[in-house]
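Dig into what follows:

_____
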Amino acid sequence: MLKPRIIPTLLLQDGGLVKTTKFDHPRYIGDPINAVKIFNEKEADELVLIDIDASRLGKEPDYRLIERIANECRMPLSVGGGIKSLEQANKILGFGVEKVIVSSLLIENPEKITEMVNYLGSQSVVVCLDVKKTTFTKKYEFCIHNGRTKTGKYLDEVIEMATSLGAGEILINSIDLDGMMTGYDLDLIENVKKKLTVPITALGGAGSIEDLKSVISKFGVIGVAAGSLFIYKGKLKAVLINYPNRELKTNLYQ
């Protein structure tokens, strides 16, 4: 029986684990390998790992670090950041990574996504849509390069682009709610989910277990990802890697 997936999301910068707020003000959290070990112990469903600077700075993925993390990780692992070609994607999957995540490629070189899908299989290719609500029209605009570059393309168009290219999963991420811990944008998730037949994972805004449950209760079998929720503890945001135990997870599904 399929169940919702509860997915910690780790952000990398210069080889370290960081956490951002609205895609800005990265705060150093610690060693990503240590975080992975803790999530292993807590039996996380999946893990998402994203290098937030690689594409913006035109850098190659950090293959050595990805390989180390993949060797340590005992759960399905998805990796994004700086992946621009089939060769890069194939190399990363060769480390034991389950899925690669692409974003700016949707605008800069979309045919490369189809090339990855045709060779690796659609189940191995995730398109991440980082979106920000515009001030006046209140539409969701797709932004790339860690949110710093506006594309002039909006939600419906980029969903259609990603699915037509063969993406096997969509990761929808609210820039406005990143690190805010005030709850998910349920309207955004609904707008995306009703247009898709492929799996969707929602990211951005989780601050409590109740926030996870609100998404699962409304949308059913869905990926529910979070960063701050699984990294911080308390109002002062002390760093403490955490993840719901089996009992809490069972309650989320009810």
The chain has a mean pLDDT of 96.
